[in-house]
From TrEMBL:
Keywords: Signal. This is Glycine/betaine ABC transporter substrate-binding protein. InterPro entries: ABC_Gly_betaine_transp_sub-bd (IPR007210). GO terms for molecular function: transmembrane transporter activity. Pfam families: OpuAC. Residues 49-314 form the ABC-type glycine betaine transport system substrate-binding domain. Residues 1-30 form the signal peptide.
Length: 325
């Protein structure tokens, strides 16, 4: 299943064993004021504190910020803990009470339940929703269309006319394919639906993940293994080919929240569920591009994420109640 790079991007769930020292540190910080807080609303939500955590990659930091700002706009006092930790740490954190809520991905939730994907997005979501409720007393709110899954990328407007993985199959003997040496597992998904193996291609380059983007963007290779919402798609003028036979499991993000916290106010679900349909794969790519531009303009990454997320929410009609602070 996912390789070292997937662990760095914090999507696949490894062994659910918390690192004691890190978790104790995280638990000790909960509610201590080490994150930023905002309140001041006159409604009852102002008396409810919610600690929102998140994973380490830029996309997860953006999701954490979006959830934080929407909840603050609904009047809640939010203690934000971005980059709280990797999959293991955030999952143990929500179970222990160190954090109350964080963005999780559906296929990662299946890993936690030790279940495989049905390759039906709604069915997988219902499986994790029911399983987390029963086993962990954790609720999954509505999931977003964003799908950060495995993918095959090619140059936008490529001369081979590749727009789907079926196109890739038809022209495989003309294609040089880039793949990290530890990512051959991707063909465990591609072979059953498309019949693709490493031997299908004209040539295969075993290169670092980031080098694959550059080689395809520069014309040295024709396609590469990628993740469907990786910012490298933006920076190298690539596209993720349509998985027209649905070979890959879906990684849709959703807020997951402990039952005991969700019961404090129905506005938690109302606010976050209103945001869910706005977060698409294209939106994630646009937000990551905005963060990169902000950083290049001299902002810290933290400020760059805040600026990009706030602008997006305002453009979408949020931030009208108490403001996104």
């Amino acid at each position: 299943m996912p390789s070292l790079f997937r662990s760095l991007r914090a999507k696949s769930l490894f062994v659910l064993a918390c690192v004691p020292l890190l978790l104790l540190t995280a638990c000790g910080n909960a509610g201590s004021g080490s994150g930023t807080t905002s309140g001041g609303s006159s409604n009852s939500n102002a008396n409810i504190s919610i600690t929102v955590g998140g994973k380490l990659d830029t996309e997860s930091k953006l999701l954490t910020k979006l959830y934080t700002l929407v909840l603050r706009d609904a009047g809640f006092k939010v203690n934000e803990k971005p980059a709280f930790g990797n999959n293991t740490i955030v999952f143990q954190g929500i179970k222990s009470g160190a954090i109350d809520l964080y963005p999780e991905f559906t296929a990662t939730g299946l890993d936690a339940l030790k279940k495989t994907s049905s390759l039906n997005d709604q069915q997988d979501y219902q499986t994790v929703k029911d399983g987390f409720k029963q086993q962990f007393q954790i609720d999954w709110l509505d999931y977003s269309p964003l799908n950060d899954t495995y993918a095959v990328c090619a140059k936008s407007g490529n001369s081979l006319g590749l727009t789907s993985i079926s196109d890739l199959v038809a022209k495989a003997k003309q294609i040089t394919f880039d793949l990290p040496s530890d990512s051959s597992y991707v063909f465990d998904y591609l072979k059953p639906k498309y019949g693709l193996t490493l031997d299908s291609f004209k040539a295969v380059h075993k290169v670092d993940y980031t080098i694959g983007f550059k080689e395809v963007g520069g014309g040295q290779s024709d396609a590469n293994f990628c993740y469907s919402s990786d910012n490298g798609i933006n920076t190298n003028n690539l596209v993720a080919l349509n998985d027209d036979k649905h070979a890959f499991p879906a990684y849709h993000p959703a807020p997951i929240v402990r039952d005991s916290v969700l019961q404090k106010s129905p506005d938690i679900a109302t606010a976050l569920n209103a945001l869910a349909p706005k977060i698409t794969t294209d939106v994630s790519l646009q937000l990551q591009k905005a963060v990169e531009a902000n950083v290049n303009a001299g902002m810290s990454q933290s400020r760059a994420i805040t600026e990009a997320a706030t602008k997006f929410l305002k453009d979408q009609g949020f931030c009208k109640k108490n403001g996104c602070q």
